[in-house]
Write a structure and sequence with these properties.
Strand order of the largest sheet: 1-4
Structural class: mainly alpha
Number of strands: 4
CATH class: Mainly Alpha
Number of domains: 1
Largest sheet: 2 strands, antiparallel
Shape: globular
Helix content: over 70%
CATH architecture: Up-down Bundle
CATH topology: A middle domain of Talin 1
CATH superfamily: NCX, central ion-binding region
């Protein structure tokens, strides 16, 4: 049985790499052939597509009565999106952040996190609250599609991008081929992530790890692998709008669509544990808010900022590991993080924001 799991893990990883390459290539060509800014493609087609594993696994977990696994998958995936994927992508290549992302989409991501947390405060996301989240996702998607036309005259310059791609031989005559590449890449990402998550979850259960911790780490990390593979490859290929747009769009998708549909599909909604409310939600909110000053300062994510996010993700995983083992060092570790590390980081980000404002003035 272990050899089968190892084989599925290796095959899943190979499919993720191949699927990410196919998806990024198809999405960038599709954007160029239609004259749509790559950021819009990253926020919609790529983000929603790579978020499909989170949706599938959360709904399956809820149907099996594993509410903690469903909620943990959503929270853990978003924390991984921001701290792990954004961090790794920025380390690979400094990311340029679109003005639209700074002023519209990133604040909407923070707003979605606040709304999900507010709905969860009573220990449950009710059915009607899930419907509100899902309707908000539909409205956001419609807004993205409608705003893609005005965006052509903005700093994204969709028409200029289309002209540049046509000079490279990318035209509307190959539109169906590029769309097929997108769907093929998504299919490989979803299948590869399912094999990886299935094998990893089997290993975790053998170690008697709780469902919430499995959802926050193994499952969330596994379902975030499509976003990681796609954003990292997009950053390395110079498609940085797709890289950042994928992360922000996928985070919005997880909170509004995945959590929303999970709660709306259950008669009693989705229960949220006190552990998730007391630690994981605050970590998600802190990571989401930290994006705003980092995105704002120069409209770019430098390598050191990516390293900072990655270090925080390692610290988060360390806390979960100590908590799972009920280690005696857990209270001291949590106190140091909350008293010194987190405040120092936010002060640093605040100083950078003030300097950026003064330099612009």
């Amino acid at each position: 049985m272990s050899f089968v799991n190892v084989g599925l893990f290796v095959l899943g990883l190979a499919l993720l790499i191949l699927g990410a390459e196919t998806l990024v290539r198809g999405a960038s060509r599709l954007a160029g052939s239609l004259g749509i800014p790559p950021l819009i493609i990253g926020l919609t087609v790529v983000a929603y597509g790579t978020g499909a594993p989170e949706l599938t696994i959360s709904l399956m977990a809820l149907a099996n009565g594993q509410g903690d696994l469903s909620v943990g998958n959503v929270l853990g995936s978003n924390i991984a999106n921001i701290l792990l994927i954004l961090g790794v992508s920025a380390l690979a290549a400094p990311l340029i952040v679109s003005r639209r992302l700074v002023w519209i989409d990133a604040p909407l991501m923070v707003g979605a996190a606040i709304a999900a947390y507010a709905f969860s405060l009573d220990g449950r996301v009710e059915r009607w609250e899930g419907l509100v989240l899902f309707v908000a996702a539909v409205g956001y998607t419609v807004f993205l599609v409608r705003s893609s036309r005005p965006a052509r005259g903005s700093d994204d310059q969709g028409e200029d991008y289309a002209a540049a791609m046509r000079r490279k031989g990318v035209g509307r005559e190959n539109l169906f081929f590029y769309a097929a590449l997108v769907f093929a890449g998504l299919a490989m990402l979803i299948l590869g992530s399912r094999w990886l998550v299935g094998a990893a979850t089997t290993f975790a259960r053998a170690l008697h790890v709780s469902e919430l911790v499995i959802g926050l780490t193994i499952v969330a990390g596994g379902t975030s692998l499509p976003e990681l593979a796609t954003s990292l490859l997009a950053a390395m290929r110079g498609e940085r709008d797709i890289a950042v747009g994928n992360i922000v769009g996928s985070s919005i998708f997880n909170l509004l669509v995945v959590l929303g549909l999970a709660a709306a599909s259950a008669p009693d909604g989705v229960a949220v544990s006190s552990a998730a409310l007391g630690f994981d939600y605050p970590v998600l909110l802190a990571a989401s808010f930290a994006c705003l000053p980092i995105f704002f300062t120069g409209h770019r994510i430098a390598r050191w900022e990516g390293g900072l996010f990655l270090a925080y993700y390692a610290a988060y995983l360390a806390y979960l590991g100590l908590h799972a083992r009920a280690h005696t060092a857990l209270p001291l570790y949590g106190w140091v993080m909350l008293t010194f590390v987190a405040p120092l980081t936010f002060v640093t980000l605040g100083v950078l924001s003030v300097r950026q404002l003064r330099s612009r003035a």
